Amino acid sequence: MKKIMLIGHIACGKTTLCQRLNGLKQEYKKTQTIEVINHTIDTPGEYLEHRALLRSLTVTSVDVDVALFLQDATSERFLFSPGQSMAFPIPVIGVVTKTDIATPEQTAQAVELLELAGAERIFCVSSINGDGMDELIQYLSE
Ligand SMILES: Nc1nc2c(ncn2[C@@H]2O[C@H](COP(=O)(O)OP(=O)(O)OP(=O)(O)O)[C@@H](O)[C@H]2O)c(=O)[nH]1
Ligand SMILES: [Mg+2]
Questions:
Q1: Is residue 88 within 8 Å of 62, Cβ to Cβ?
Q2: What range does the domain containing 134 cover?
Q3: From start to end of 43-127, where are the E strands?
Q4: Looking at residue 64, which CATH number applies to its domain?
Q5: Which residues of 7-44 are buried (b: 16+ CB within 10 A; e: fewer)?
Q6: How far apart are CA 19 and CA 70, in angstroms?
Q7: What is the count of structural domains for the chain?
Q8: Contacts of residue 83, Cβ cutoff 8 Å, sequence gap at least 6
Q9: Alpha-carbon torsion 113, 116, 118, 122, what sign?
Q10: Candidates 10, 15, 133: which one to mutate for ligand 1, based on the most atoms within 8 Å of Cβ?
């Protein structure tokens, strides 16, 4: 299993995805600090939202195989800048979350924005009903 780090805006679904990938009980818990769960590093959305904290993500990523940029398909907020993946010394993939409650247009737009941020592959998932999860798990275990 690849060692991964989850990055994305507040409430985009990082912790819920982390729980799903690690077979943990799905329960809401606001992430307060960078947390390591098995091969997964979960980060608080504030680290992306407050630019002064961004550097900490880059530093943490040195010990990681791949960074996951997460985008909530239903959110109007998109906080990754074009080409932001270049700020990380490791491969970056994109994960569009909450596809169970998004329209196909919202999902497509989130894919486009993650491409713009430089994600080299993009997966569309729901951590609630499991849609798209098999493909993501397959990639992470390659
Ligand atoms: N419908 C749906 N809801 C989701 C999904 N993923 C997460 N959520 C919900 O979105 C809310 C926020 O999820 P979190 O996983 O805590 O978000 P986060 O990115 O860890 O947020 P921070 O820790 O604040 O940065 C919770 O109420 C989740 O149940 C999903 O795939 N589908
Ligand atoms: Mg969280």
A1: no
A2: 4-141
A3: 66-72, 92-97, 122-124
A4: 3.40.50.300
A5: bbbbbbbbbbbbbbbeeeeeeeeebeeebeeeebbbbb
A6: 15
A7: 1
A8: 116, 117, 118
A9: positive
A10: 15
- Asked whether 128 lines ligand 1 (CB < 6 A), one says yes
**What's the residue count for the chain?**
142
Pick the closest to residue 68 from 55, 49, 84, 56 (CA basis): 84
**Contact call for residues 92 and 118 (beta carbons, < 8 A):** yes
pLDDT per position as a tens digit, 53-76: 999 999 999 999 999 999 999 999
State which residues have CB under 5 angstroms from ligand 2, the bound ion: 14-15, 31
Q: Output the pLDDT for position 77.
A: 95
Q: Is 141 exposed, middle or buried (0-12, 13-18, 19+ CB in 10 A)?
A: exposed
Which ligand is closest to the CA of 11, given by its number? Answer: 1
Residues of the chain with pLDDT under 50: none
